[in-house]
Amino acid sequence: MSRLGPRTGAWLLAMLLLATLPAWIGNSYYVNIASQILIWAVLALALNLLVGYAGLTSLGHAGLFAIGGYAAAMLLGAGYGHLVAAVLALLVTLMASAVFAVLALRATGIGFLMITLAMGQILWGIAYRWASLTNGDNGITVASRPAPFGLSLSQAPAFYYATLIVFLLALASMAVFVRSPFGASLTGTRDQARRMTALGYNVWLIRFLTILCSGFWSGVAGLLFLYYNQFISPQVVALTTSAEALLMVISGGSGTLLGPIFGAAIVVVMKNVVSAYIERWNLVLGVIFILIISFMPEGLVPGSVRLWRSGWHALRGKSAPVSAAGSEASR
Amino acid sequence: MSLWLTLAVNSIALGGLLFLLSSGFSLIFGLMRIPNLLHGSFFMLGAYLGVTLLARGYNFWLAALGSTAMMAVIGGLIERFLLRRLAGDPLPQVLLTLGGAFIIGDVCLMLWTGDPWQPGTPDHLRGVVAVAGLYFPIYRLVIVAAALVVAVALWLLVDWTRLGAKIRAGVDDQAIARVVGIKVSQLFTLVFALGAALAGFGGVMGAPYLSVYPGLDFEMLPLALIVVILGGTGSLLGALVGSFLIGFLYNFGQAMLPDLAYVILFLPMLVILVLRPQGLFGKVVS
């Protein structure tokens, strides 16, 4: 392979497309959708650290996402500046993630999932019922978006670029994270927890730190979300949000860096398209879940490749095992 | 004084409802190890079906029976045709039941609209009984009685009948159970149907008390979860104790710290997780 292989070329092309997106997409409605996709992609990437690399499925990530947003909204409401509010909000998210981690790591597997689900619902309960703190169902409005270095983010393209920068930072940090020795030990705890313990790794600590990292980026996504909408309400904390984030991760293919990004794009676009025609997003979400589980448990992107290949091979009269081996090799 | 008594009676009644909900969850999650996120939806759907039968003029007990039977059929079908294919694979089961919960929630919203439905307490269960100068609403007592009957019946079923022995054998070692001729698949369908039916029955019993509204499903599901985490997975006694504990916490929390009532509910779960992760009556799995 030459130094500038097809992979590098694809990356450069993707970067170029992302960087010039507001120019060729024109309409600010679509630029906003692109911003939404990037925000959700940050959350999906954060959740993927747990689901894909640590083997711990969380159904409470909407809680961590919302803590970042709510904390910033409250601090802004209390009169703090944007920078202070953002930094403090991320600190609060980190602390909440630590509590979350300590409790949820009392169990693994399905127990972990159930505990995170219950904690997500507690946070929903706080957002919804503790009206004196969170303004209940009415949510909190934020007056303005920040203007870092004097650049206003109030217009759609400017906000898109800010989101893009944060997104790329998130992606880069995840790439470093999973390729580092720490990342390797993390996948070790996913596949062979007992063996890792025997080798002298502190499995609990590895998982704990991963949840902190995942919680941090969830909080960052929550901050972006708050500034994007300039509003946050208990709806964000609902189980639906956690489920959507999980759907992004598994539909794109968990345990890969790019899968959750595609998943975020698929879910956001679908949600916008479906909502334009009918009010039944939850129904559609549920049906997609069941279809994916039944037909493409490995994720939409690898799954479609597999189905397409086996269909093609079936047409040409070849046997299915060949195509299965082919899709295995292509990963 | 009477305020505290009213609270206590309400707490016991809510505890009874929670037991109807969580005993089924305990069977499905604790015994069969299926993380059934549909359980709150079973409760809500059962309640809606019961309310609809009541609105058509059926007798309360007939409506409860009808709804329970329908929920058993629905639960059995879901287990047989959807969950069976994923046996022993918890993550896909979670996603499937979660997807199913969203579908049921949205379909209920479509069919029964967003307004809450609250049937009146049935005529013959209205009123109060006086015991030693204190007055107890009959309906609350009926809920508790129903929960206790179910508790005893389940205990007899699981611990003392041939069917219960087969179920326990199927759970403990599926392969061996099959070898000695136990039809494990059929048994699992039966247990799942039973769990769904119990949730549906709880929903109908709760309807005159809690009313039925969209979102009830995802409000009840975490309650079933915390009851089972508190009591210990797979323990019916644990589910019973956990239900009444949560019933008391909820009512007293609501009366004393209304803003925080929902949060207080989860505190014992957190304490238990830290101090005794297997739950109050749970066995340590080696």
Order of helices and strands of chain B: HHHHEEHHHHHHHH
Could you describe the largest sheet of chain A, including whether it forms a barrel?
2 strands, antiparallel
Number of helices of chain A: 16
Structural class of chain A: mainly alpha
Give the overall shape of chain B, derived from the CA principal axes.
globular
Class computed from helices, strands and strand pairing of chain B: mainly alpha
In total, the number of domains of chain A comes to: 2
Multimeric organization: heterodimer
Helix percentage range of chain A:
over 70%
Unreliable spans of chain B are: none
Q: Which CATH class of the largest domain in chain A is shown?
A: Mainly Alpha
Could you please describe the fold and organization of this structure?
The complex is a heterodimer of chains A (331) and B (286). In chain A, 77% of the residues lie in helices and 1% in strands. By secondary structure, chain A is mainly α. Chain A is globular. A two-stranded antiparallel ribbon of chain B has the order 1-2. The termini of chain B are far apart. Chain B has 286 residues and is mainly α. Chain B has a domain of 193 residues. Chains A and B meet through α6, α7, α12 and α14 of A and α4, α9, α11 and α12 of B.
Give descriptors for this structure.
heterodimer; A: 331 residues; mainly alpha; 2 domains; two-stranded antiparallel ribbon; 1% strand; globular; disordered C terminus; B: 286 residues; 2 strands; 74% helix
Short recap of the structure:
The complex is a heterodimer of chains A (331) and B (286). Chain A is an all-alpha fold.
